[in-house]
Design brief:
heterodimer, A: alpha/beta, Peroxisomal Thiolase, Chain A, domain 1, two-stranded antiparallel sheet, about 20% strand, globular, B: about 80 residues, mainly alpha, about 0% strand
């Protein structure tokens, strides 16, 4: 059974939809800026910048939707609605429509706001919608309600690998034969003082407070940590048979998806990269492809000193000398790291790269780390004609590795 | 100074509008919150708590189930200001 991508949606620090995001990415823009919120100074947060959604959800959704949905679910709904409309709002039996939609953290704004309310005003003032708003399956449930999906609505949580895992899970749903369409993706809305302080406490994030737009710099010798971003990405996935029967526009094939785990350290990547390498190999096996078929990688590349090297080590194990022929893009340089939404928007970028035959640039690469001799794309680069394969990697705290593989649609 | 029932109705209609998006002029005395305005129990609790703040009244939880129509709520608020 072949699976195709028929719709894309995104809201990111670069743009409020797929087209504006992609155009800004190709133009080498940065979505990272200084946070103007009063809590930055109030709590003396050591990191004063992030990639905030370019278009606030309140400009897209109704006031009632915003009141009843955590910001993470708001981004999810915006991305999923765009993907669904892009797919032509297919008519499908509700029982044969499923959702696989992730977040890394869930409704952190709702949870912490509610605790503030409890402390300041007592339990009666805690909003009755608090629980459904904070639960990590809230974004998936909101999409499921909106699209009337009754074939199962599910949330995989694996930190920053979450939404790549969601897309991988969509494959098994579709292969079961019980489902015709899956809306898959992920979101995050964690630009809140607590997560920022917590990531800063573990020294995972960049402190380049004076030059926020230069802070996310994967593979550069001066990289000093990731930059938090927010938003969401979604794709409509369906069997090729179903897509052709309804005359759908097709972007690409989804040919592989794999998940492995390191069991090495709760936050540090395995320096040998074995778990990540196994995930890439498993995705390629499912795609019935050889490493030499891969011509483009959207890397996880968060701009942390150790993470970028560990991913390179894993890729070198899988691809060997062929790695030099692969155009590698590290798009977090522009978007920041959307945590549970990262894999989703990067899968969207990977699909667009195949569809438009162009690998997006990696900005801020001034001095490439000599320990990471990848062929990094620094300005938009044409990809070859003919059938080509691309993969998108995501790794997460907990030792999670997830990889999805797409093939160009001829 | 106590508000008139018309003033309470207008204020309540604003709270309903904020919570649900329903037009304020659809909030009329004879309407049932659940059957006519399609307001679920979760929205109702939010409106009740906001009404307590707005009108300076206490609406005990055991009283909420008696507030079936808009008139029930307006009368309760007007009588307990």
């Amino acid at each position: 059974m072949k699976i195709v991508v028929t719709g894309l949606g995104a809201t990111t620090p670069l743009g409020g939809d797929v087209r504006s995001t992609w155009n800004a990415l190709l133009a080498g823009k940065s979505g990272i800026s200084t946070l103007e919120q009063p809590w930055v100074a109030q709590y003396e947060i050591p990191v004063t910048f992030a990639g905030q959604a370019k278009v606030p959800a309140s400009e897209v959704l109704t006031p009632q939707e915003c009141k009843r949905l955590d910001p993470s679910s708001q981004f999810a709904l915006i991305a999923a609605r765009e993907a669904w409309a892009d797919a032509g709002a297919p008519s499908v039996e509700p029982e044969r429509l499923a959702v696989e939609f992730s977040t890394g953290i869930g409704g952190v704004w709702t949870l912490l706001d509610a605790f503030d309310t409890l402390k300041e005003r007592g339990p009666r003032r805690v909003l009755p919608m608090t629980v459904p708003m904070l639960m990590p399956n809230g974004p998936a449930a909101a999409i499921g309600m909106d699209l009337a999906a009754r074939g199962g609505v599910r949330t995989s949580v694996s930190a920053c690998a979450s939404s790549t895992e969601a897309i991988a899970n969509a494959i098994t749903r579709l292969q079961s034969g019980d489902i015709d369409i899956v809306v898959a993706g992920g979101c995050e809305a964690a630009i809140h003082p607590l997560p920022i302080a917590a990531f800063a406490a573990m020294h995972a994030t960049s402190r380049r407070n004076d030059e926020p737009e230069l802070a996310s710099r994967p593979y550069d010798v001066a990289r000093d940590g990731f930059v938090m971003g927010e938003g969401g990405g979604a794709m409509v996935l369906e069997t090729e048979e179903h897509a052709l029967a309804r005359g759908a526009k097709i972007y690409a094939y989804l040919v592989g998806g794999a998940v492995t785990s390191d069991a090495y350290h709760i936050t540090a990547p395995d320096p040998e990269g074995s778990g990540a390498a196994r995930a890439v190999l498993a995705a390629l096996k499912q795609a019935e492809a050889k490493p030499e078929d891969v011509l483009h990688i959207n890397a996880h590349a968060t701009s942390t000193p150790v993470g970028d090297i560990a991913e390179y080590t894993a890729l070198k194990r899988v691809f060997g000398d062929h790695l030099g022929k692969i155009a590698v893009s590290a798009t977090k340089a522009s978007t920041g790291h959307l945590l549970g939404g990262a894999g989703a928007i990067e899968a969207v970028f990977t699909v667009l790269a195949l569809k438009e035959r162009i690998a997006p640039p990696t900005i801020n690469l001034d001095n490439q780390d000599p320990e990471i001799p990848l062929d990094v794309v620094t300005s938009p680069r044409k990809l070859p004609d003919g059938p080509i394969l691309a993969i998108s990697n995501s790794f997460g705290f907990g030792g999670h590795n997830a990889v999805v593989a797409f093939r160009s649609y001829e | 100074m106590a508000l008139s029932k018309d003033e309470v109705l207008a204020g309540l209609a604003e709270l309903v509008n904020e919570e649900t998006g329903l037009a304020t002029d659809s909030v009329q005395m004879d309407k049932s919150f659940s059957d006519d305005l399609d307001i679920d129990s979760i929205s109702m609790m939010t409106i009740v708590v906001n009404a307590e703040d707005k009108f300076g009244v206490k609406i005990p939880d055991e009283e909420v189930k008696n507030l079936v129509t808009v008139a029930d709520a307006v009368n309760y608020i007007a009588d307990n200001q």
